[in-house]
């Protein structure tokens, strides 16, 4: 049984995921044990095919494990139906992907407001936009923004519903070095100031310095988990 410790956000034991196409089986995740506490900044680090995206998708309720148990607080997510997972994603999780998925015909504010319309206790859209440093660009359209600005809009959209956890899949993958650092600073500030648990996928080992803990994956398993003695700021990172 998981601990009654209120600080424990995710409790995973023996997580596995196997994909089947005809007679072909691909084991994407195998025997993963992981605890994540509220307010932590976690980096999932590993090469392509290591299982980090599969793990993130399962934590985010976008996928379900083939085997094992997963709890979010006291809520069981393994074996949950689509209605339960949809409610979980809507109420608790913010997603940021490598590509921004903004609606081109809507302004920055309107893109963020789409999420506030379905959230239980949303942050005002303008406040979320200000949190990512784009208050002066709220009435601009995506085509009028740089790639880094568009990614910050995606972060504003994710945090506008006040999620308990922010899941980021290669958020700097399409950005240059300087722009990537600006985006990482926004994620770090959301984690630090709002207390949002942040879980970030990357293949860039330098980014691992920002984390409280680094979870290194390979071949669908956790190879090791490292605790950082001191978290680096994005400005201290070099890659």
Task: Name its key features.
239 residues, alpha/beta, Rossmann fold, six-stranded mixed beta sheet, four-stranded antiparallel beta sheet, 6 helices, 10 strands
Outline the structure in words.
The protein has six helices and ten strands. Helix 3 packs across helix 4 (125-131), helix 3 (108-116) runs parallel beside helix 5 (147-159) and helix 5 packs parallel to helix 6. The protein has helices at 52-59, 82-92, 108-116, 125-131, 147-159, 177-194, and strands spanning 8-21, 24-37, 41-45, 67-72, 75-76, 93-96, 165-169, 197-202, 213-218, 221-227. With 239 residues, it is α/β, with parallel strands linked by helices. The radius of gyration is 18 Å and the shape is globular. The protein has a single domain, classed as P-loop containing nucleotide triphosphate hydrolases (Rossmann fold), CATH 3.40.50. It starts with 7 loop residues before the first strand and ends in a 12-residue tail after the last strand. The longest helix has 18 residues, at 177-194. The model has no long low-confidence stretch (mean pLDDT 92). Helix content is 28%, strand content 29%. The strands form two sheets. A six-stranded mixed β-sheet has the order 6-7-8-3-9-10, sandwiched between helices. Helix 6 links the parallel strand 7 and strand 8.
């Amino acid at each position: 049984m998981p601990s009654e410790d209120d600080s424990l956000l995710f409790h995973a034991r023996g997580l596995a995921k196997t994909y089947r196409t005809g007679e072909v089986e691909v084991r994407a995740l195998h025997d993963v044990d992981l605890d994540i506490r509220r307010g932590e900044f976690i980096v999932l680090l590993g090469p392509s095919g290591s299982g980090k995206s599969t793990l993130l998708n399962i934590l985010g309720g976008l996928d379900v494990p083939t085997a094992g148990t997963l709890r979010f607080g006291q809520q069981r997510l393994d074996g949950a139906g689509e209605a339960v997972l949809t409610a979980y994603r809507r109420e608790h999780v913010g997603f940021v992907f490598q590509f921004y998925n903004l609606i081109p015909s809507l302004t920055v504010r309107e893109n963020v407001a789409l999420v506030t319309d379905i959230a239980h206790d949303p942050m005002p859209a303008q406040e979320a936009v200000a949190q990512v440093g784009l208050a002066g660009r709220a009435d601009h359209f995506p085509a009028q923004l740089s790639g880094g600005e568009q990614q910050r809009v995606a972060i504003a959209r994710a945090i506008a519903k006040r999620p308990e956890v922010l899941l980021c899949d290669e958020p700097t993958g399409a950005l240059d070095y300087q722009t990537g650092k600006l985006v990482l600073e926004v994620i770090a500030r959301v984690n630090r100031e709002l207390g949002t648990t942040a879980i970030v996928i990357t293949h860039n080992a330098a980014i691992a310095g920002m984390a409280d803990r680094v979870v290194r994956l390979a071949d669908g398993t956790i190879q090791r988990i490292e605790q950082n003695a001191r978290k680096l700021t994005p400005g201290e990172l070099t890659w």
